[in-house]
Amino acid sequence: MINQQHIELIKGTIPVLRENGVALTSYFYKRMLGNHPELRNVFNLDHQSTGRQSRAQAATLLAYAENIENPDALVKAFERIAKKHVSLDIQPEQYSIVGENLLHSISEVLNVPMESELIQAWKEAYVQLADILIKTEKDKYDALTAQHGGWAGWREFEIENIQASEGASRLTLKASDQQAILPATSGQYISIKIQVPGQDVEQPQQFSFSTDQNGEAYSVEVKAEANPTIFSVANILLDHYKVGDKVLVSAPL
Ligand code: HEM
């Protein structure tokens, strides 16, 4: 548990960190992806470049710190984040990488040494938050593998059919192992992960189901992005993928 003195220390720095949120998060991602280039396969580099994701993680840590005496206020957010993480096969050991880089970034923005009491306090807050997410995610991985046709992490699927229309295509995906797959309801989503052409990197993206899925194949609509980058999964699928090609898919959530 975090003691009262640490809670006060943390709370005192939230406004400064909020004000410098952009600096905090851009420093954080640059540092983390520089030290751990393998995470370029995990984070959506498209979102990185637009800065959307850069804000999400640090913003959640700040929101958590603000509610540190009452973390239940954030249960809904934890549920949403854990879902997204499980869809991306995020693992417990990756939390220490994110934590280390986030704490260094806080130390940098606040201009206080890593060894200070203040960073120690933030570390306690981060670990507490990470423990909540890791546990919520473990429950979800366990629930997925316990179901008939369920799985955790990535599973190979083959594109069985492509129904093309203007700027969009409907892809039908079948499990390469021909075994059962989880049924799903409209509104649930899967992540699809593919190799970026000409780059030594894989990229994931989420695709929602617009109708219930019967458990034999998944059908997703892939729409071209208006301002794609080389990392835009939808555009790569539309431009480079054909029937018989393989993609990686995470279980519906
Ligand atoms: C306490 C630590 C963490 C917090 C507070 C956190 C928070 C978040 C939030 C708020 C989102 C956006 C959710 C949404 O789209 O609705 C997110 C997405 C994501 N998180 Fe985390 N996260 C944490 C740890 C991690 C770790 C350890 C990893 C793996 C290295 C990770 C990887 C991702 C990825 C890849 C996404 C999707 C972003 C994208 O595709 O651009 N997160 N996280």
Automatic annotation (TrEMBL):
Sorted UniProt keywords: Heme, Iron, Metal-binding, NAD, Oxygen transport, Transport
Domain Globin: 1-138
InterPro entries for the chain: FAD-bd_FR_type, Globin, Globin-like_sf, Globin/Proto, Riboflavin_synthase-like_b-brl
Enzyme superclass (EC): oxidoreductase
Domain FAD-binding FR-type span(s) in chain numbering: 149-253
One of the protein's GO biological processes: cellular response to nitrosative stress
GO MF terms, alphabetically ordered: FAD binding; heme binding; metal ion binding; nitric oxide dioxygenase NAD(P)H activity; oxygen binding; oxygen carrier activity
Reactions performed catalytically: 2 nitric oxide + NADPH + 2 O2 = 2 nitrate + NADP(+) + H(+); 2 nitric oxide + NADH + 2 O2 = 2 nitrate + NAD(+) + H(+)
Keyword Hydrolase listed: no
Alphabetical list of SUPFAM superfamilies matching this protein: Globin-like, Riboflavin synthase domain-like
EC number: 1.14.12.17
PANTHER family: FLAVOHEMOPROTEIN
Family under the similarity heading: Belongs to the globin family.
Protein name per UniProt: nitric oxide dioxygenase
